[in-house]
Amino acid sequence: MQGTRWGWKLGAAVAASALLAACGASSSPAKPSGAAAPSGAKGAPIKVGLLTPLTGTYALFGKVGLDGVELAIDQANAQGGIHGHPVQLLWKDYQSSSSQAVTDFYSLAGNGVIAVLGPLDSPAGEAVEPVAERLGIPTIAEVSDPIVVLPAKPDFFSVVPLPQYFSTPLVQWFQYKGYKKLAIAYDTTDAWAFDGAKAMEQQAQKAGMQVVGTYPFEITTNDFGPMLAKLQSSGAQVFAVWGTGNAEVILTKQFASLGLNKHIQLVMNATEASPAYTGPAGAAANGVVLDGPVVLLSQYLPASSPFKQGLDAFTQAYTKKFGEAPQIVSIQSYALAQILLQALRQAPTLTPAGVDAALNHMNVETVDGRFTFAPNQHGSVSDPNQIAVLRIENGQFVPTQWEKQRFNQLGQ
Length: 412
Description:
Elements: H1 13-21, E1 33-36, E2 46-52, H2 59-78, E3 87-93, H3 98-110, E4 116-117, H4 122-135, E5 139-141, H5 146-149, E6 156-158, H6 163-177, E7 181-187, H7 191-206, E8 210-217, H8 225-232, E9 238-242, H9 246-257, E10 265-267, H10 275-281, E11 289-293, H11 308-322, H12 328-346, H13 352-359, E12 363-366, E13 369-372, E14 387-393, E15 396-399, H14 401-407
Parallel strand pairs: 2-3, 2-4, 4-5, 5-6, 7-8, 7-9, 9-10
Antiparallel strand pairs: 1-3, 11-14, 12-13, 14-15
């Protein structure tokens, strides 16, 4: 079973190619590595590394992730850097390969980085974690496979919620809607999807719901007819799908073509909270409910939201710099860099050991919510209130009625 992290693996190859073709020269996937030149601050540069997949399966997410990290570091350097030292970002394209991620980690270490951001998928995270510990270089990854983040590993941190935290708000929404019968489909090749489906089944049963069907599939599945026939006769009121990629787009279209969307609510998970899902799915995605970071509903957040102001400022800066609105990956990567920059500010020494000491006592508000680490807790945010339940309308993400009530606005 292959593990993947949420929101970073999609099968929309056309969209990925188009986005990558629009990249600037400094981050072109044709280059396996690169460096963002420091500016503003005048001291000796602080070198930090980034493992990002600019080619291969996760290329789409690697590019926008790199953009988010570069923006955060550019802003920090423009404000004088860290204690007068500019931050220099050295990045490596690990080509969506676990073995290449390990090779690139050693290369970054040889170039003198004192911390590393990434990788973005759980297989690469599993491969890199023991190397980070062996070399004593603090690493903040974006993976959520429990085997990687639990228990706390020396020098290895993660900022993506575990799948059960994405299941919780959805099950609460099921209860709000009065659903009693649930069917679940999950990608057997994706450990995150498998764990999420299992967590949802347990939570739904605890909430008094009946799970009337569980349907395994694979990322390469392109005919969901047999599964949907079983679903149609199951009596399910809501159908939750755990997986990522083109298979979910195909399932969505076939679900709609059979007219199942007229009497069964289709629910996707946070991995599809991206135009790379809504675009290919088109009109078939209208009415689909899914969850994702509450930051996706920035325009609906009340002014009292603790991170709305920072998120709005980030969105404006990102759009100005890159000519497009940030994706969820961009937001998460920017937050990743915010955590590291705060650790650099708090570190007793600008060394790997100093950064690790700061990360072990980290409590910082980012554009993606508040993150807290402790010596025995190197996992990420676990507050379900930072995960929103969304509905797709004409390709856009809007809050469900339940979410509007949580926001306590819009006259509810």
